[in-house]
User: Which sequence fits this backbone?
């Protein structure tokens, strides 16, 4: 008769007990692609949000949310949402800086701040809602 002790649990392979490993080359390339896609969506959103005042802001935030959730579903992990969110945040923060000539992309208006803060909130929500590592199969339930 087998017991449900530590030896039995290690045979099932719990999600937290597994060692961390480097992703495969294809998976790493997908994360880099999601990072670059997030940067492009951030730059496009920065241009759209101020062009069409109420609709442009919503379109930019919905595009960002779609990119973040799409990355999470495509990769099956929360890192799939974090990669485009990181690219989005870096591109948007770089676009807020003024140039030596005095040029800037974001004005000091309420819509720009809503885009910046709203996009960061959307990134956090999408990374939280993304798929985490869950055990598969009928043995995934905890014993009573």
Assistant:
């Amino acid at each position: 008769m087998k017991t449900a002790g530590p030896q039995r649990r290690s045979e099932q392979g719990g999600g937290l007990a597994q060692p961390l490993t480097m992703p495969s080359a294809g998976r790493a390339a997908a994360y880099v692609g999601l990072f670059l896609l997030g940067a492009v969506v951030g730059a496009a959103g920065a241009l759209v949000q101020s062009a069409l005042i109420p609709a442009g802001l919503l379109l930019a935030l919905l595009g960002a949310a779609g990119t973040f959730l799409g990355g999470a579903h495509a990769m099956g992990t929360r890192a799939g949402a974090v990669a485009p969110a990181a690219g989005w945040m870096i591109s948007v923060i770089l676009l807020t800086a003024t140039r030596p000539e005095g040029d800037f992309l974001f004005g000091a208006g309420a819509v720009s701040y809503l885009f910046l803060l709203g996009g960061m909130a959307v990134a956090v929500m999408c990374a939280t809602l993304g798929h985490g590592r869950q055990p598969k199969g009928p043995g995934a339930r905890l014993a009573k």
In short: DSSP finds five helices and no strands in the chain. Residues 99 and 135 are 50 Å apart (CA to CA).
